[in-house]
Each structure stands twice: as structure tokens, then as C-alpha cells.
């Protein structure tokens, strides 16, 4: 997160998405009482024009009608940016096929947990990598992942050979670092890698030393592509509608780690960076 925070000046509002209720509006596109999602940062009240931000993202999305049994907070997770990151990143870049093996790092997070489930929907053999046995139990027993690797305690190479004896076809990379270097050595010919993030180096003071990955990439002719989900803004509600349909069909499940109170925002944030959350980390005001 140092790379993101370094752009902020003292006194700036810290970054963050919110579900907010409109209490007053002079914009005909928005009405009091409507709920919206926006990049409003860490604050309790916001004045917004609703116009597009410099990155092209709308200033505020009007949340579509959710079934009454689904919380609006899902617009920050599986029915919002993280869910669309999983949907488009996996299906457009990895393009998984039935019978292929998919491995996901950061598998118990808001993005990774959805990636693995969509992989199962598409007929893949899915391996999740996360940092606790509790998270692994959730991935396998509740979400339907085929296998779990604990990167803190397991011999990763040994486990990959055991769980993917015929190699890996698709890799959804949320962490980077040494784990990614090990996984690339087990990719099949013409394997596809969607690079979503680099959790392993987010809080480093110095730029991490680069591990040589060219050999497996070249020898196995791998396709490795980084992406930002805003690429699919013109299809945004396609992802939300499909993920909602899968939730209603019982094919997609979710979990939120909810912290109560604005005063606990910083603690919730640092807990997330330490891997303390399962699913989407939410602060409820």
C-alpha cells in the first residue's frame, strides 16, 4: 500500500469505496434516499457532483435493486468492483476451459474467493492458496475449492505436484513474489496468467528484488497479462448481474469481515493488510 499512500498529501482523505445514502441532491440523475457506491474515502459525509473521476470511473454508481435478503454492502464486494475483478479477470484473460487446473493466490480474499468459485462453475480443478487452516477449511468445505495450500506452513512446490500432477493451466495472481515464481515453474504449455495484484510487496519500504521468471514464461510460451478492472467499464453491469444470478442459484457464496464504527477504520485496514479478513473487509458506520 505504500505505493498508493505515497501519492497522498498530508491532510488528504484516505482512499476507500463506500455505500452511501443520498440525503440531498441538486443533480437530476440522483434522488434523495437512493443508495450509491463511490470512491468517497474515509469520511462520514461527502459532497459529490456525481461526474466521472479522472480515472474514468463514475463519481457515483446507483446501486441496482438487490433482493431483500442480500445486504447493500455486497456492492463493495462480490456485487461490485472485487466481484467484477474476479469475473472479467478470470474469464477474459485466463479464459478457463472445462477440465483445466486453476490456481488462485490470495484465495480467501474478496477477489480470490470469487475467482475460485467461478472457476468451479466453468468446470475447472481449483487450488486455493491462503495463509491459515481456517481459511482453507472455508475454501474447500464451503466454497467448493478442490484443494488448499497454506503458504505459511506447507511446502508449496510439493503440494502443487500433489494437487496438480498434470500441471497448471490458469493462474490468477494476487500476490506476486516468490510464490508466483514457484507456481510459474508448474505451468503447462500455453498457460495463462492474470496478474491482479502484488500483496506480498505492498508494504515493503524498498522495491523487492525481482525473481527471474523469464525462463518458464519463454519455455512454456505463457501468456501473462496485468489488468485493471476499469477496462470493462462498458460491461460493468454484465458482471454484477451474472454474479447475482449465480448467488441466487447457490453457485456463488460470500463472506464479509465486518468491523463496527468509524473509529475502528484504521484497525480494520491494518488487519486486512495482515490477512486478518476472510472475504471482503467492511466497516459499518
TrEMBL record:
Q: What class of enzyme is it?
A: oxidoreductase
Could you tell me where this protein is found in the cell?
Cytoplasm
Keyword Phosphoprotein among UniProt keywords: yes
Using the record's annotation, list all stretches that form the Enoyl reductase (ER) domain.
Answer: 11-283
Alphabetized, the UniProt keywords read: Acetylation, Cytoplasm, Fatty acid metabolism, Hydroxylation, Lipid metabolism, NADP, Oxidoreductase, Phosphoprotein, Prostaglandin metabolism
Record's keyword annotation contains Cytoplasm = yes
GO annotations under biological process? prostaglandin metabolic process
Q: Which GO terms describe its cellular component?
A: cytoplasm
Which superkingdom is the protein from? Eukaryota
InterPro entries hit by this protein: ADH-like_C, ADH_N_2, ER, GroES-like_sf, MDR_fam, NAD(P)-bd_dom_sf, PTGR1
- GO molecular-function terms, A-Z: 15-oxoprostaglandin 13-reductase [NAD(P)+] activity; 2-alkenal reductase [NAD(P)H] activity
**What is the protein named?**
Prostaglandin reductase 1
